[in-house]
Specification:
heterodimer; B: mainly alpha; MetI-like fold; 2 domains; flat
Chain lengths: 309, 299
């Protein structure tokens, strides 16, 4: 490969040394980043793979029998694992669907020539900027059963007659977490979709209207098909984030009540750090990573396709 | 123009005008509802942080508190007789600031260097290597926390800011590489060639030509990197133990355990922890939006 480079790089007169071949330069430039990632990702990942093959329990130090794929088989045949996986899927499907639908509506709204549009565009980013932990704390307080603003608002509006329990009700808790997540992440979806909408030439929509299409038809048949690639990317991106949800659940409910909001990441954390079972914890980490990596492959493939067109 | 209207002379008959007015009314109503939904939770968090405790447990709740004071802010930040909570909160502010700033600087330096190589240099394995970097960025922390916990303990780095700086750099750097590669690719390589002819080394080209031209991209990336490091919770939860390294998300998690019923204090901690990112997002909005879109939906 270096001949090609040599041809492009004219020898610079008077320089004492020939420049390095391009791939050496590249190696030198990438080395620092690769080093950080090798030490913090590749080494731990290999170690986690190794750990996942042993029965490592912190309550039983020194005695760590090799169990092969036992930890994986244990998990894949345990009700707790599947229940937590389904909870994570439930959270993922509902929150991603809501974020996409509301995000698209919000993006379309921000794309309209309205007088106070700048205000909306300025403020919409704020929920996204709020740290996840603070968002969770805020909603935990709003959803408080005795003093929360949600109960106060709904009773004052006459929608509720008495204060309700939200986060301690196992039928409702997950919905409250979804609400908090949707409030925070819809703006991000809207910002990304707005960028896509703005990249569509307004003349296309105008042309459709001149041809007799209603606003809705122009939207449905002209605008939306053009932003489908970005919608797909955002969909995969949000799915990936949502499936590994941890922080917001941890702060709002800790996985309760009665495991009603125990998603797969919470389950893995509790297995490892509250059950002191590092072998199973490592196996769970791998299983989650597997799902995420499949989604990541889809995501990168979609990005690649957009890059080419 | 073949508008499907009954009388061709009047461009906009009454029905159409009514429809346009109705549409505008609907859009403005939607906008107002959206603004209220965005702002109300924030407002309540801020109100809760300054309201007297009695105002917060009222039933029916009055939305404007009768007594307002900033004593909680003072107690948590500059009060002269800090209790344990205030001490750990102050330590967390310092830790979060130091960690997020260092991670930003390190990742930006290391990441931009690599991004330049990916954008401009030809070398074997280039396309799969950048995908490998992206994969490490997307890897869920839960898959890495156990070995990292053990490794950091073995190295004596547990409960130090350095451990978090190293860990955060490992996922912020690939993100920087990804965004900056995109930015650098939009810069004409003729600039590079001109500088090379003038005798610049590759590093010289990067520092003297690319970095100045890519400055807006660097700003976007730096802000997003800072926010990512500021926001992180799971690694911090297992790596930190004491005020020596606890970050704000962990401090808030502790707060909930310790002051579960002191909602005013929790809200105050939340507002303080939220201030830097919210101000950054507000002030540098353009950069943030540019960074977000180029970072997540552009290949």
């Amino acid at each position: 490969m270096s001949q090609a480079i040599g041809a492009r790089d004219p020898a610079i007169g008077g320089r004492p040394r020939k420049p390095w071949p391009e791939s050496w330069v590249a190696a030198a430039f990438i080395a620092p980043a690769a080093l950080v990632i090798l030490l913090v990702v590749v080494v731990p990942l290999a170690r986690a793979a190794w750990m996942s093959l042993f029965d490592i329990s912190l309550v039983r130090p020194g005695d760590e029998p090799f169990v092969g794929l036992g930890n994986y088989i244990d998990q894949l045949t345990s009700g707790g694992f599947w229940a937590a996986t389904f909870r994570a899927l439930w959270f993922t499907v509902i929150s991603t669907a809501l974020e996409l639908a509301l995000g698209l509506a919000l993006a379309l709204l921000m794309d309209q020539p309205l007088r106070l549009r700048w205000l909306l565009r300025t403020l919409v980013i704020l929920p996204w900027a709020l740290p996840t932990i603070v968002n969770a704390l805020m909603w935990r307080w709003i959803d408080n059963a005795e003093y929360g603003a949600l109960n106060a608002l709904l009773t004052q509006l006459g929608i509720l007659h008495s204060y309700q329990v939200w986060l301690s009700n196992s039928d409702i808790a997950m919905w409250m977490i979804i609400l908090a997540d949707v409030w925070k992440m819809t703006p991000l979806v809207a910002i990304l979709l707005l960028a896509a909408l703005q990249s569509v030439s307004p003349e296309l929509v105008e042309a459709a209207k001149v041809d007799g299409a209603t606003t809705f038809q122009a939207l449905r048949h002209v605008l939306l098909p053009l932003i489908v690639p970005v919608v797909l990317i955002v969909l995969v991106l949000r799915t990936m984030e949502a499936f590994k949800v941890f922080d917001i659940v941890w702060i709002m409910t800790g996985g309760g009540p009665a495991n009603a909001t125990q998603t797969i990441a919470i389950y893995a954390y509790q297995t490892a750090y509250q059950g002191y079972d590092f072998g199973r914890g490592a196996a769970l980490g791998y299983l989650i990573a597997l799902v995420i990596m499949v989604l990541a492959a889809v995501y990168l493939r979609l990005l690649g396709r957009i890059g080419r067109t | 123009m073949q508008a499907p209207s009954a009388s061709p002379r009047r461009r906009r008959p009454l029905g159409v005008r009514a429809r346009i007015a109705g549409r505008a009314a609907f859009l403005y109503a939607a906008m107002i509802v959206t603004l209220v939904v965005i702002l109300a939770p924030f407002a309540w968090l801020v109100i809760s942080s300054v309201a007297a405790p009695v105002d917060l447990i009222e039933r029916p709740l009055s939305w404007i508190p009768a007594h307002v004071g900033f004593d909680r802010y003072e107690a948590l930040t500059i009060g002269s007789t800090p209790d344990d909570s205030a001490l750990s909160f102050r330590a967390a502010i310092v830790n979060s600031s130091v960690i997020a700033t260092t991670v930003t600087l390190v990742s930006l330096a290391v990441g931009t260097l690599a991004a330049y190589a990916f954008a401009r240099l030809r070398f074997p394995g280039r396309s799969w290597l950048i995908l490998a970097f992206m994969a490490t960025y997307m890897l869920p922390p839960i898959a890495l926390i156990l070995p990292l916990y053990q490794i950091m303990s073995a190295l004596g780095l547990r409960d130090t800011p350095l451990a978090l700086i190293i860990i955060y750099s490992s996922f912020v750097t690939p993100f920087v590489i990804w965004i900056m590669r995109g930015y650098i690719e939009t810069i004409s390589s003729e600039l590079d060639d001109a500088a090379r002819v003038d005798g610049c080394s590759r590093l010289g080209v990067l520092v003297r030509v690319i970095v100045p031209v890519a400055a807006p991209g660097l700003v976007s990336t730096a802000l997003l990197a800072f926010l990512m490091a500021w926001d992180e919770f799971l690694y911090a939860l297992i790596i930190t133990q004491s005020n020596a390294s606890k970050t704000l998300p962990v401090a808030i998690n502790d707060f909930i355990g310790r002051h579960g019923v002191d909602f005013g204090l929790l809200a105050t901690g939340g507002v303080i922890a939220a201030l830097p990112p919210v101000i950054i997002a507000f002030v540098f909005q353009r950069y943030i939006v540019a960074g977000l879109t180029s970072g997540s939906v552009k290949g």
